[in-house]
Every structure is written in structure tokens, then in C-alpha cells.
Amino acid sequence: MDGGLADREFGGWLKTVRPGEVFYGPEAILTACRGGLDEASQRLISYTRDRVRQPDSEKDLPVLFNEYCTTWGVPQEDQIRRIVDAVRPLGLRYFVIDAGWYLEDKTKDWWDTTGSWNPSPFLFSRGLDDTLNYIREAGIRPGIWFEPESVGIANPLFTKTEWLLHRDGVPLQTGKRRYLDFRLPEVRAYVREKVIRFLADHRIDYIKVDYND
């Protein structure tokens, strides 16, 4: 058994501890019990539940529908309407539009173009708000997918290296993705505009955040 902070190779994480300095890692929680994995997992969940402060919105377990495995990154407005009609009787609280809603170039795919966060002009030809309002009219709150730290290889930010995380003097990259450096005020301003303001302007009630790399 092992555990701890992300390593340098896969997590891109390191800390230089100079002579005389001390570094304290985060507390680790372990458990042992008579029984199997379910019993051990329940003990760990109980520990967290008793100590983590939850917002009121997370004190129950709302039912949501995520459309990714029906559109596979191509969430076109008319198809979303058909899906909403199909799930309308289920008593959902949230309907999440997943990856690909920002695709601006039909010759590329959602994975490679991540980073600009502009609604697709051809997937949502009537405007994204038209689809969001259709979800609301069904009595469901709209949600949407973001991965705000990631920049795909076909996105202009991929080569804006002064905004990106670096390792050994070169942009940190996994596969076809690089990552914004949130220590920079200009990056934080960009995300406030493209993500936070977007959520507010479109009155979106739920955000799904993946961490794919």
C-alpha cells in the first residue's frame, strides 16, 4: 500500500526543500476493520461526512442526467431537446450538457479544441440560451461541462506559452493537452470572464468539472 501527493512524472508536482527547511504533507486517513471493502469504505465515508462542511445544496443527493454517453461530445440542440423530452418524467433536478458544446470548427473534435469556451455556432444555431430555456421549461435546472485548466492542441492558447504551466523550462504537456498557470493574474482574469461570467450570464445552476490529466 502506498499513498501521498502526486509524483513528478504523472502529477507534475515537486517541492524543493532547502537546507534547514521543513515540509509537512497533508494528513492521511487510514482505516482497518473486520469485513470487506464495503465496510472499510463506509468507515472512511463516515469520517469525511462528520468533518466536512457541506453547502446546503449538497446535503442531499440530487438526481441528474449527463448527456455525454448519448452525444459523445457532439451535443446538438435538437438532439438535446429529444433527450430532455425522454427524461422529463424522471424527476431530475439537473440536466448537464457535457463536452463539445464549444466546438467552433467542424473539422476538429472537442478534445483538441478545449480552452476557448464559446458556444458552438453550428451545434447551437439558435443560441445556447434557447436550449437552456428548453431544459428549464421541462422543470429541470441546466448544467454544463468545463475543464477550465486545460488547453487542447488545436486551441490558440496551446502556443501561448507564457500562460502555461512549465516543467524543466518547457510547457507541461500530457498527450495533446497543456495547462493554464492559475498563479498568473491574467490567467485568473481569463477564467473569470470565460467561465465564471459565462455561468452567471447564462444562469447555469450546475457545473461539471472533469480532471482528465
Give structural attributes.
213 residues, 9 strands, three-stranded antiparallel sheet, 7 helices, alpha/beta
Describe the fold and architecture.
This protein has about 210 residues and is of the alpha/beta class. It is built from 7 helices and 9 strands, in the order H-H-E-H-H-E-H-H-E-E-E-E-E-E-H-E. The strands form 3 sheets. The chain has a 4-stranded parallel β-sheet with strand order 1-2-3-9. A 3-stranded antiparallel β-sheet has the order 4-8-7. The protein has a two-stranded antiparallel sheet with strand order 5-6. Helix 4 runs parallel beside helix 6.
Describe the secondary structure blueprint for this structure:
Blueprint: H1 8-11, H2 37-51, E1 64-66, H3 68-71, H4 77-87, E2 94-97, H5 110-113, H6 128-137, E3 141-146, E4 150-152, E5 166-167, E6 170-171, E7 173-174, E8 177-179, H7 185-201, E9 206-209
Parallel strand pairs: 1-2, 2-3, 3-9
Antiparallel strand pairs: 4-8, 5-6, 7-8
Helix pairs in contact: 4-6
